[in-house]
Amino acid sequence: MCAADQLKNMQASTEQTNPKPKPKPNPPNPNPDPNPTPNPNPNPNPNPNPIPRQVSIDQMKQISDKAKSTWDKFRKERDFHKMHHKRVVQEKNKLVVDLKRLKNHYANYEPMLKMMRGKYETAMKARPPKPHLPSPQPH
Predict the structure, then answer these.
(1) Cα torsion for 73, 75, 81, 85, to the nearest 10°?
(2) What is the pLDDT of residue 17?
(3) How far apart are CA 81 and CA 18, in angstroms?
């Protein structure tokens, strides 16, 4: 048996063990268009603006410079927005820290006010009442 016969036998055995699935036929269109519109572009090329094959080096340089300037513009815009975002995040974090500090600061006021009110009330109870003086009569 030559090598070509062995190769054919191996291919036949793999086809028997791994049969290729048959492609399913496409179902018929239930609503075919009775008046199909003709293609307005008679050019079979799907690209409406094909690039000519012969382009001079100067034109290529112009195209590449324009693309480079566009990318530079996009890069600058991206960096601007990135820096703005970083600045806003930094300001937000600073405000969060300030808010936490103020909450702690004002949380101490309530117990302090209660303590001072209690001292005031005990001091007012302990001292003798003032004598009631008549209000002065107008002349």
Answers:
(1) -170
(2) 56
(3) 56
